[in-house]
Amino acid sequence: MRKIIYSLTIIISISLHSQNSSIAFTLNEKDLLPESIAHDPNTGAFYVGSTRKGTITKVDEKGNQSVFIRSGEFGQWMIIGIKVDPQRNELWFCSSGGNNLEGYSLKEETEGRPAGIFKVNLKTGELIKKYTLEKPGGTHFFNDLVIDENGDVYASHMFAESSIYKIDRNNDTLEPFARGDLMLYPNGLAIADNRTNLFVAHSGGIAKVSLKTGAITALAIANDLRLTKIASADGLYFYENHLIAIQPDLSQVAKYKLSQYQDAIIEGEVLEINHSSMDHPTTGVLVDDSFYYIANAQFEKVGEDGSLEVSEVSAPVILKLDLK
User: What is the pTM of this model?
Assistant: First the structure.
C-alpha cells in the first residue's frame, strides 16, 4: 500500500480504505477494459467506451445493455474519452490506436499511431463526421474531450505532441488550439462554470487554458497536495468551484478547491480511496450532485504484446459517489 500523507490543511474524511461509493451497475461483457463513460440527461442512458473492443455500450434508464457502436464500425480504434451533447443529440468520442485494442497490429515506428475524434447521431447511432490524424511514422493520441455551450469541442492530445485541439462548431475543422511545456501529456479536461477557463490534468499537475486566447498557465498547488507524476489525474471535472479528480495510481477520487480567481488549488478532500471494486479507476461523469465513474479499467492486465487472459479480468464496475 502506498503511504499517503496529508497536512492539516486537507480535509480528511476517510481512512486509507473507504466504501463511500456504491455500485451503480456492472457490465455484462467482462473484457471491455473500459476507459470512459458519458450520460444523456434527456433519456437517462449511460454510454461506456471500451479500449479492448473499440465499442460503446449503452445502458438505458432501466439497466438494459446493448452495443451502441460496434467494433470498427466507423474505422475507430480504442474508445477513449466520450461525451454527450444533449442540446444537439450528439455523442462525441476520442479514439486512438494502441495495444489494448484486440487485434491491433500497427507498428508505431513505421506505420505510426492513428487517432481521431468522432461525432455520432445519438438517436440513430449513425456517424455524422470523423476528424482523424493518420500519418506513417506519426504518433497521435486523443485522450479526452469536452464540449462548451456553443458546441465547440476541445480535445487533449498526448505523447509526441502535448496539446489541445479544437473543433469549432462554425467552421467544422480540427485545429491545434493550445500547446506548450506547461502541459505534459495532457489528459482529463474540465470547463469552468464561467466558461472562460479550461482545466487540463497532466503529468506535471493542472494547467489552465484561456478559452478566449489559448494562453496556458500552471495552477499553483498547495505544497501538501499530490497531483503530479504518479499522483496525476486522469478524469477531471468541474463542480462548484472545485475540481473532481480521479487519480488512478493512488486508487482515489478527490475534490480540490480552487481559489477565488481559479489560479490555484488551495485545499483537497479525498472522497474515495482503495474501494474494493477499484482496479485502475479512470474517468467519470457528473449527473446532478452524483459522480459516476469507471472503477476497474484493469489496463495492467494487458500484456506488452496486447494479450489478455479473460479469466483474469472481472466484470467492469461503475461506481456512484454522492457529492452532497
Answer: 0.94
